[in-house]
Design goal:
With 296 residues, this protein is mostly helical. The protein has a single domain, classed as Orthogonal Bundle (MetI-like fold), CATH 1.10.3720.10. The chain is elongated. 36% of the residues are buried.
Length: 296
């Protein structure tokens, strides 16, 4: 019979060289490669936006208003003469800061709550799931609009809303995975050897739970970015003059007949972000899930 330690090492998320093997599989997957390139492009624009924008995204230049796309202004200018391409690049930093920061925070909170609910006492499980279900039952957009109306439109309020909305989802997924792994033979064997609960959670439960959640979280990032853009478009998100993609869409919609390039420029990064993170997340799921991945 296979020893307990060998069984644990056979878990896909603790195999040595899993990162290099994953990258090798992604290179062989066309959709995964496209997703990786798009995500890297978005990350590059977000990190280096201050250095690669050809113009100041906030500078008003009224004489240059409504210039159509050209070699100087790749995506034209808006009603205040601001370079739309520079605003799109600068908006990537806002989108990534909202999307990645909030998802990372919600994922960390969801992991802690889910592990506590799945491996803790029954009463704690009932309390945490009751709170989680209560929050999860509210419609996302209505809850977001309510909180923004009460606290005021700002990037911190928007991030708070996303964290409140996403944390219960990750907590429930973590709880389900924890309950499954907790009843496995190797965990029961470790418990019989006298290992502490904290050690079991950190060493044996967490590594096997966090991997699939990271894939789900990567696919949730574009949803958060779209939520931020949608609330900003409605005037309930990030206030002006921040070059949010939702703000670009809002400003361009009023001039869609005279300057349609503004709306197109605001929609392109949302499409790229959605496709990039979705393709990458699905490729990671297919390649890392032992039931779905192909033998290399």
């Amino acid at each position: 019979m296979t020893p307990v330690c060998a069984q644990i090492s056979e878990k896909p998320w603790s195999e040595p060289g899993v990162a290099s093997a994953t990258l090798r599989r992604l290179r062989r997957d066309p959709m995964g490669s496209i997703g990786l390139v798009l995500v890297l492009l978005i990350l590059f624009c977000g990190i280096f936006s201050s250095w690669i924008t050809p113009f100041d995204p906030l500078k008003i230049n009224v004489p240059d208003r409504f210039h159509s796309p050209s070699l100087v202004h790749w995506m034209g200018t808006d009603n205040l003469g601001r370079d739309v391409f520079s605003r799109v690049i600068a908006g990537s930093r806002i989108a990534l800061s909202v999307g990645i920061t909030t998802i990372a925070t919600a994922l960390a909170l969801g992991l802690v709550l889910g592990l506590a609910a799945g491996y803790g006492p029954r009463w704690l499980d009932n309390v945490l799931m009751l709170v989680s279900d209560s929050i999860y039952s509210f419609p996302t957009v209505m809850l977001a609009l309510t909180v923004v109306t009460l606290l005021g439109a700002s990037i911190s309020t928007l991030m708070f809303v996303v964290i409140v909305i996403q944390t219960p989802a990750y907590a429930r997924l973590t709880r389900t995975a924890t309950l499954t792994i907790k009843s496995s033979e190797y965990v029961q064997a470790i418990e019989s050897l006298g290992a502490s609960k904290l050690r079991i959670i950190i060493v044996h439960l967490l590594p096997n739970v966090v991997g699939p959640l990271l894939i789900i979280a990567s696919m949730d990032i574009p949803s958060v970015v779209a939520l931020e853009a949608g609330l900003t478009y409605l005037g309930m998100g990030i206030p002006p003059p921040a070059p949010s993609w939702g703000r670009i869409l809002q400003e361009g919609f009023g001039q869609i007949r005279t300057a349609p390039w503004i709306v197109i420029a605001g929609g392109i990064p949302l499409i790229i972000t959605t496709l990039g993170f979705t393709f990458l997340g699905e490729a990671l799921r297919d390649n890392l899930d032992p039931k779905l991945r192909h033998v290399v």
